[in-house]
Amino acid sequence: MKRQKNIRLSDRAWEKIKFLTTRYGTQTTAIEIAIDQLYEKEKNAMSKYVTVINAYGKEIDYEAAVNLMDDDIREQLHAELAPCSEQEFFDAYCKAHREKYGEDFEPAKANPVW
């Protein structure tokens, strides 16, 4: 479906569209190809999002969990376990956190509250 859209672009953007038009034939084709390429790049970046599963079967954003980890425990485990999977590291951290603090690491709980 083709829809006419009016958009305002900077002079810099129009210069790039003109350049791409010489390669791809029309402004529409140049813009669509540029959008497709940007979309694929962003989609690939998002697919690198890593999750782990806690003991209750909850999917946890691994990077968010790492940001909440105790620095000393995290560094000690890294020295002991690396290389290992994110899941192995998360499980080991949860155990070490419980041993040190006497309570579950928040992302390891049945209903984690961030």
Task: Tell me the number of helical segments per DSSP (H or I, 4 or more residues long).
Answer: 5
What is the count of β-strands? 2
- The percent range for strand residues is 5-15%
Residues in helices, as a percent range? 55-70%
Average predicted confidence as pLDDT: 90
* Mass-distribution shape: elongated
Widest sheet, order of strands: 1-2
- Judged by helices, strands and strand pairing, the structural class is mainly alpha
Question: Poorly predicted ranges (pLDDT <50, ≥5 residues)?
Answer: none
Q: Could you give a short account of the major beta sheet?
A: 2 strands, antiparallel
Distance between the termini: 42 Å
Question: How would you summarize the topology of this molecule?
Answer:
Elements: H1 11-24, H2 27-46, E1 51-53, E2 59-61, H3 62-68, H4 71-81, H5 86-101
Written account of the structure:
- By secondary structure, the chain is mostly helical.
- The protein is built from five helices and two strands.
- The protein has helices at 11-24, 27-46, 62-68, 71-81, 86-101, and strands at residues 51-53, 59-61.
- Strands 1-2 form a two-stranded antiparallel ribbon.
- A hairpin with a 5-residue loop joins β1 and β2.
- The longest helix has 20 residues, at 27-46.
Question: What's the quick description here?
Answer:
The chain has 114 residues and is mainly alpha-helical. It is built from five helices and two strands, in the order H-H-E-E-H-H-H.
